[in-house]
Amino acid sequence: MLRALLLLVSVVAIAHAELCKPDAQNAFKVRISIKTALGDNAYAWDANEEYLFRAMVAFAMRRYSSKSTTQISNVLLCNVTDRVSFWFVVTDSSKNVTTVPGSEVEAAIRMNRNRINNAFLLSDKTLQFLKITSTLSPPVEPSTPVWIIVFGVVLCLIVAGIVFLIVSGIQKHKKKNKESTERENLEEKVEVTLENGIPCEALDLKAGHINGVFAAEDERFTSL
Amino acid sequence: MERKCGFLIPYLIMLIAEGMPLLYLELAVGQRMRQGSIGAWKIISPYLCGVGVASVVVSFFLSMYYNVINAWAFWYLFHSFQDPLPWATCPLNSNRTGYEEECEKTSSTQYFWYRQTLNIAPSLEASGSVQWEQALCLTLAWLVVYLCILRGTASTGKVVYVTASLPYCVLIIYLIRGLTLHGAVNGLVYMFTPKLEQLSNPKTWISAATQIFFSLGLGFGSLIAFASYNEPSNNCQRHAVIVSLINSTTSIFASIVTFSIYGFKATFNYESCINKVILLLLNAFDLEEGSLTADNLNEMKDHLMATYPQEYAQLMPQIKNCSLEAELDTAVQGTGLAFIVYSEAIKNMEVPQLYSVLYFFMLLMLGIGSMLGNTAAILTPLTDSRVIASRFPKEVISGVVCFMNCIIGLIFTMEAGNYWFDIFNDYAATLSLLLIVLVETIAVCYIYGIRRFEKDLYTMIGCKPNWYWKIMWAFVSPLLIISLFIFYLTDYILTGTLQYQAWDATQGQLVTKDYPGYALAVIGLLVASSTMCIPLGALVTFIRKRLKRERVSTVA
């Protein structure tokens, strides 16, 4: 009985070793860069973290295929290096000693990538699944590009400035023309008579100024 | 413009031998003759009217293509109001699994310049269509120039107060930011260590001389035009010395800022390169993170080569040799320097939007200041001539000139436009300016007579020029310009067919190609149309005088 049990365990162990090895069918390589992501707050990669990883992959498989048959024991890890990098494979417990097709695993991981990243406080770049490309998020683009708005503002200011300068130039020109025509008209009227540069019409010949020196005051002359 | 260390010595020597005397000469001529370049040279000798016309033609070519730089500055300025900056990251490809292929091969800043700004064609022949975004920016640039020159040179003088002083403020801000950047010291050390083998290379002296020419604006006619508005008793000798000293100090100050930012960019790129190599080795050999650092990289590389020779040999082509010297030596030529290198440095700073806006605003101020000088050089002869000035007000003349230049400038906004821009940039001004300034110096010294010129200066300023000025004008400057001229000609002849750098989108880098026939014809036309004005002008005057003399003799 004990011997049969031991035989079974060894068979299973050998089978596992067969299923999970570098470049095996349906196996994926994972590369983790904890120190790059977290710096001083980096945690050490140990057996507990490996358990969490296996749990996350099992969770992803359950969510994707929505049948609750994948167990943590179905996820096998091997070849863990110092880097930290390792290979993993998901076995199918319903069929003996086979692995779930790579496409299903890929789709499951893709769907739940965000949850897996957050469980380890990492990002797409620091928790890399080497054969699974991640969908990059495009940058946020507003409906009208920003540069057109700034361009429009500057253009309006410049055009307003040009129009203002041209209009004020035309007004100055008109004023100058009006002044010169007025001066011309004035000179035409006055051409008739000029006395010391003062037009005669402007002089009031009747009213005059009494010059005090020559004003005849009776008291100044001695009476005869 | 290449900026290499040990440049300071040829630069300062050329300033004293060439810059100051020629600047004084042009200012004095303008102030004395009180006319733009065409009228001023006609007064000196009727056979020299061609010199003025040549200056105006060169200024015309320059104004055609120079405003495109302002258009690009506007484009970058408007794009600086986003977070993140558009040239900081590559755009994604169509199925969002990675970045655009062209952007992967080159850097994001180069991709933004070559693809999103210029949308450059693979060669000169593939003209492509006008890029409407660039056309809009060019129109805006011309409207700004029109606004500044609308009221004539009197108002331009007030605008120049702003365009000349603002760059200094920005440079000071950048100096403080630049000197505090990580790796700036590397750039400064590179700038100030003299490299003696460069001093023996004549190309260094040539580029120093050309630099002085362009930064002072000699030979364009703009100096004569501006000086003609000065008071006759203005002390132009003092002004010439002050202006050239301020100009050179500003150049050196700007170089310090440039090199500190250059050093930052080179250090950043060097460290990224090292980090990439470290990551590659860590991933390939599954080593623990942190076991490879910049310090132990070389020893570890040797160790890995010894332990895993086969895998290491497979990796060899991907491992780049990172060198700080190589990064500092990458001298990007021409307009690319201002846009690619600086935008790359800015995207790595904190609050990059602020620095980006400041930098491109400064570039815009400088560009518009240059454009104002150019357009003044074209407009002053036009408004001086009574034929045109009596019929049209100056607003209309300026408007027509700006409009024509804008329409012609649309050529430079096409997909192959940048190649035409390079043609104009390299050939429209260099040879012609040298010839114009040479003829100017010889005309003033030998045809007008240096004693007559001395007397004029004495009447204007009240002091005669001392022996330094006279020796420079009469001997040193002409000899220097003749040797520069000979050097350029031999350089053009020796290199055979002229070549240009075209952007290859598939490789993500510049490749050298030959100019097609019609481009060579355009180059020849550019050079000939300005240089031929001088002998043609003399010939036309000679023929007119002969005809007059014959008419007089027949009448008598």
Please outline the helices and strands:
The complex is a heterodimer of chains A (224) and B (556).
Chain A: H1 2-19, E1 28-32, H2 34-38, H3 47-65, E2 75-78, E3 85-92, E4 98-99, H4 102-111, H5 113-119, E5 127-129, H6 146-189, E6 194-195, E7 198-199
Antiparallel strand pairs in A: 1-3, 1-5, 2-3, 3-4, 6-7
Helix pairs in contact in A: 3-4
Chain B: H1 8-33, H2 37-44, H3 49-78, H4 101-105, H5 108-117, H6 132-149, H7 153-179, H8 184-192, H9 196-199, H10 202-216, H11 222-227, H12 236-285, H13 297-307, H14 309-315, H15 324-329, H16 335-347, H17 352-384, H18 386-391, H19 394-409, H20 417-427, H21 430-447, H22 450-460, H23 467-494, E1 499-504, E2 509-514, H24 517-531, H25 533-555
Antiparallel strand pairs in B: 1-2
Membrane topology (chain A): Single-pass type I membrane protein
Signal peptide (chain A): 1-17
Keywords (chain A): Cell membrane, Glycoprotein, Membrane, Phosphoprotein, Signal, Transmembrane, Transmembrane helix
Overview of the molecule:
The complex is a heterodimer of chains A (224) and B (556). Chain A has 224 residues and is α+β, with helices and mostly antiparallel strands. Chain A has a domain at 14-129: 2-Layer Sandwich (Alpha-Beta Plaits). Chain A is 46% helix and 12% strand. Chain A has 6 helices and 7 strands. In chain A, the strands form 2 sheets. In chain A, strands 1, 2, 3, 4 and 5 form a 5-stranded antiparallel β-sheet that branches. In chain A, strands 6-7 form a two-stranded antiparallel ribbon. In chain A, strand 2 and strand 3 (85-92) form a beta hairpin. In chain A, helix 3 (47-65) crosses helix 4. Chain B is an all-alpha fold and 556 residues long. Chain B has one domain (5-555). Chain B contains 25 helices and 2 strands. In chain B, strands 1-2 form a two-stranded antiparallel ribbon. In chain B, a hairpin with a 4-residue loop joins strand 1 and strand 2. In chain B, helix 1 crosses helix 23, helix 3 packs across helix 24 and helix 12 crosses helix 16 (335-347). The longest helix of chain B has 50 residues, at 236-285. Chain B starts with 7 loop residues before the first helix and ends with a helix. Mean pLDDT of chain B is 85; it is low at 1-5. The chains are: A alpha+beta (224), B mainly alpha (556). Chains A and B meet through helix 2 and helix 6 of A and helix 3 and helix 6 of B. Chain B: One of its GO terms (biological process) is glycine transport. Chain B: Na(+) binds at residues 215, 247, 366, 370. Chain B: This is Solute carrier family 6 member 20. Chain B: Keywords: Glycoprotein, Membrane, Metal-binding, Sodium, Symport, Transmembrane, Transmembrane helix, Transport. Chain B: It is a multi-pass membrane protein.
